[in-house]
Amino acid sequence: MDTSLIASVVAATLVAGTPLIIVAIGELVTERAGVLNLGAEGMMAVGAVAAFATAHAGANPWLAAAMGMAAGAAMALLFGYLTLTMQANQVASGLALAIFGVGLAAFLGKPYESAPLPAVPPLHIPLLGELPLIGPALFHHQALVYLSWLLVAFTVWFLDRSRAGLVLRAVGESPSAAHAVGYPVLAIRYAAAAFGGAMAGLGGAFLSVFYTPLWSEGMVAGRGWIALALVVFATWRPLRVMLGAYLFGGVLVSQLFVQGAGLRIEVPAQLLSALPYLATIAVLVLISRNPATIRLNSPASLGRAFRPER
């Protein structure tokens, strides 16, 4: 395998893993506050169509990404109202949000099918971009790829070093104790849910505006579910989320490079397309064999309703 092909595989892996990182980090913060939102697929889809519609109207890609974040956050706040205020079951509400979001995005996106957008050019990084092998692999990407790295670094600092992050973790571990100390548990959980929704919307906007600048029904293609699995796979640690996202991103693009390289393999194309989802199931099965691994960093109150005493 020549160096140019290696650089292409690495570059494609980084790009494919970017939306997974963004969405999974948002879900990780949400879950560290004790809120289990399984609606990432629907929030990504709504964010994708909102961003595409904004860009199609002539707005710049960053405004489109902001609209995608706003749409995802609005969906998350709807989920928050149902589960945090009305005390609905979080698992059922999250699944309903995923189904509703995918259907709503398909309906709203009908006028935009087969209407491509101009491609967003990658950043030009002097000197680093000219390095052999490393330059094309790491330093010829769109800005959101690098912002996803900053997002991971910020989340590590926020959860482990900042006072606000420690409060959020305390709410996820024991909302009753946090409430007794005087922290607004529901407000913190609403903020965490809104952040997770905004990140899901940004992940969807990356797909429709930056990654493949077009809209098509079903373009999220299960990435929201993979992001949810990544949080468990990473045992609620941000750096492991990044590692897992690139692992799944590599599996996602491997089928394309295997076919593009002209390798003769007796494997159906449909099976190659299913590899990321098979890998997700395999990882979850392996982790589930050791309950202690899951409990290592899992918030103690994850998915449990909390009603503050008046």
TrEMBL record:
InterPro entries: ABC_transp_permease
Keywords: Cell membrane, Membrane, Transmembrane, Transmembrane helix
Pfam families per UniProt: BPD_transp_2
Subcellular locations according to the entry: Cell membrane
Annotated transmembrane regions: 6-26, 38-56, 62-84, 91-109, 138-159, 190-212, 218-236, 243-261, 267-287
Primary location class: membrane
Membrane-topology descriptor: Multi-pass membrane protein
Protein name, entry field: ABC transporter permease
